[in-house]
Amino acid sequence: MLPHRVDLRPLDAITANGRVFKPAVSDVRAFVEDDEELVRDAHGNETVSDTKVTLDPEHEIPVGSMITIWKGTQSERTAKVVKISGRSNAALEYIAYRLV
């Protein structure tokens, strides 16, 4: 169900000097979809997200965190989390992140 690998840089705090991140977590199982969706960021601004990353709930990270996808390929990129959604039922539990 989670055939891809991503790297996470969880946001820790936003200070006067910018964003501060927790230590990076590498090689996290994920499902990465290149798929466009119009989303609202934390400030209510509309933006187009072109990627959805699904992770196990144990890797919950806040909006503003960074995720590196397609590592080691020509498509590798690091993008910011702008939206989080979750789904759960008896058979399935995951958290989906929209990136820009």
Biggest β-sheet: count, sense, barrel? Answer: 6 strands, antiparallel, barrel
Order of helices and strands: EEEEEEEE
* Side-by-side strand order of the widest sheet: 1-4-5-8-7-6
Number of β-strand runs: 8
Rounded to the nearest angstrom, the radius of gyration is: 13 Å
Q: Tell me which CATH architecture applies here.
A: Beta Barrel
Overall description:
This protein is mainly β and 100 residues long. The protein has one domain: Thrombin, subunit H, CATH 2.40.10. Helices cover 0% and strands 64% of the residues. The protein contains no helices and 8 strands. The chain has strands spanning 4-9, 11-15, 18-21, 25-40, 46-55, 66-69, 77-88, 93-99. The protein has a 6-stranded antiparallel barrel. It is globular and about 40 Å long. It starts with a strand and ends with a strand.
Short summary:
This protein is mostly beta strands and 100 residues long. 0% of the residues lie in helices and 64% in strands.
